[in-house]
Amino acid sequence: DKPLNGHNGKEYFKCSRVHIDTNCGHFLHPIHIQRPVFMELENLPFYVNGCESNDTIKQLLNTIRIRKILSFQSGAEEAIRSVVASGVVPRIIDFLHYNDAPNLQFEAMWVLT
Prior knowledge:
This protein has six helices and four strands. 52% of the residues lie in helices and 12% in strands. α2 (44-51) packs antiparallel against α3 (56-71). The protein has a four-stranded antiparallel sheet. By secondary structure, the protein is of the alpha+beta class.
């Protein structure tokens, strides 16, 4: 992977599908940017499975996807019900204890609020 120059001198690494901002540690997945909530809800079972992974990067990416589902104003109640019904909330709570993964802790807290 090659470093790319970004805004304000930030360094980004471009992989085939994931961009990593090395200054803040956020992962951006182009496939999931600007997608309607109903399309994201269809994929919720995959995101829940990703959270069950032992791979911290998969956990982070899928927690971000769940957070984005919950961030939409339209359809928020349906999204909240779906996420709770999926059974992923206890796993998200577990992420709060991952002291070696502060980005995952941050995203987990955001999901829970």
